[in-house]
Amino acid sequence: MEPLEHWQDVLENRRSRYSTSKNERGLQAAPVPRPQSFHKPLAPSKEEFRILHLLPSADLDATIQGVMEHVSFNHHPPYEAVSYTWGDPRNTSTITIDGLEFSVTSNLVVLLRHLRKPNVSRALWVDALCIDQQNSHERSLQVRLMRRIYSSCLVDLVWLGEAESAKVRAFEIAATLERADLEAMRGRVRAMPWQERDRLGLYSDATDAYTVLTRDDWNELRSVFSQPTVWGRVWIMQEIACAPRVILMSGHNTLDWDVIAKFLDSGNYPDAYHAPFHHNNYEAHINEIFANAQIIEHQRAIVRNMDTGYVSRLLDVLARFRFTEATNPRDKIYGLLGLASDAMGIIPDYSKSVGEVYTGFFQAYVNTTQDLDLLCQSPWHFGSMMAPKKGMPSWCPDFANPRLPGPGVLFAQRSIFSSGSEKCRTSCRILDEIYLQVEGVCLDQLAGICGEPERDPDAPYSYLSPLDFIEGSIPKQLRKKDADERPVMYAWTGEPAFQAYWRTILTDCKRYPTCRLDPATLHACSELLESWREGDKPFEYYDGEGGSVRAELYGLGVSVMSELNFATTESGIYCMVPRSAIVGDEVAIFSGGKVPMVIRRQKPGTGANERRCHGVVGPAYAHGFMDGQGAALVHNGDLAEASIFLS
């Protein structure tokens, strides 16, 4: 199976579908204002919350009726919690609570009708009813209790919608799947003649998970584990992760979460810079369908282990669920606080602007970790320099705008690079609510940038390979073999310039797992590329001697070159820089930053104020400056460290 960086693409493609839900879980005004309320004031000192007693009826279409009860964590009846999406706020129905009529979305009414028992009441926690949605102060207080509310329930009922044949069949299929069965079934199907596979509707690629089940089977699994909008809501992630038991519901059909967990990987939890599946362990199609479930199962295991001392970092939690949606952007942080061991002093406060919430988290995180990983290797896009959101400076990650794994995240998690010092020399300072003060050095200005090479219209493929980039970006003086066997040298490392060039293109790394080029790989790649440079034949990745090295070379650079351009600075430093970089941008190394950053001086009148300010363009690779060499230049007096103000 190929690595699952592509699972992020799958989730990203679903975001538009998730965003059709216009109301967030428990944190937005009720769909229809009401003149009177059954919500009596709660006692915060007692950590009170409400439980809905859903009254019985044997008539599925009868009006929903319920009674509200105030409870505390010390005194409450056994209750079930519900995870669902509110649905279209324009499509509403009326229910009765404590004798008062109350308007809710029709999706919630359908859910309650399927939960209602014919002869006895049912104790439930339902956010739209148990939280006074029109009381912002109460919402802020109840948000802080969400983890305990779901941890204290008997079971979390996850509503996937009304019963459909595809969902019912998916429940049946999932109940039969186990990790060992997958391998056994794949082996059995591989032995079939292709004609028999085709007759049974099985995919013919023997290395593919589609050999386990039919096309229809996989499509039915998607109807449960990929398509329902419930998988895309940020609050639901915390709810499922914290509940002691989880049951999926489609109409009156149910599937216990433990059934799914049997064939998912519940160990080796990925951090902020890893995908949810291991490399080469499951088939790509299983990963695609069960990506959401796998992420949640990791978090469920983490929550269980937190009681025994496991540390769940807030950044890892935010990154793990960064592709979920929140109608209120503040909830991209507030909705996940309960899943972290340390909330770093962050308290939900909906009176703060989105910018205040995001910059506040940035400051708290940097002061806790004393590094700039969140700036230099952010799994999110930054605020815009050209059209900044109010209170969202260019250096602050936009937690509502995640980025896919790739060259923009230069391996912070493995400490592959260490351009700056390990820790920040000073605490995180934010001035006038928009200027971030960092300590660092400006290496040089960009003098030339190579764009994406032109694609050959006659080529049998439409993608660009590493050699397309190596050939298309190579400096003129390196295009031919060095004259008189004396190679042009790269001043910053003392190696041949051609070698420095292609190492820059590859960010000096190989994968998987991603790590720096070792001497053996360096030698093998150097021989192949020198041979290619000396000859006139096109480079073939899989033919001739050294085929495995050629194939590996392809894998080394294909993702890096999809988003980064080769560039040179005025002093000849070879770099890989973001596509948005322009000539004149500066390459800087910050104290506490593992990789260099490209920054752009702000023009007067765009926020520069009285300070010399820069906007953030993005992380970069600078050959010869990825392992602390900048600090040596400062020590020798060749560079001066100073305060840099980012806006």
TrEMBL record:
<feature type="domain" description="Heterokaryon incompatibility">
    <location>
        <begin position="79"/>
        <end position="239"/>
    </location>
</feature>
<dbReference type="InterPro" id="IPR010730">
    <property type="entry name" value="HET"/>
</dbReference>
<dbReference type="Pfam" id="PF06985">
    <property type="entry name" value="HET"/>
</dbReference>
<dbReference type="InterPro" id="IPR052895">
    <property type="entry name" value="HetReg/Transcr_Mod"/>
</dbReference>
<feature type="region of interest" description="Disordered">
    <location>
        <begin position="15"/>
        <end position="40"/>
    </location>
</feature>
<dbReference type="Pfam" id="PF26639">
    <property type="entry name" value="Het-6_barrel"/>
</dbReference>
<protein>
    <submittedName>
        <fullName>Uu.00g064710.m01.CDS01</fullName>
    </submittedName>
</protein>
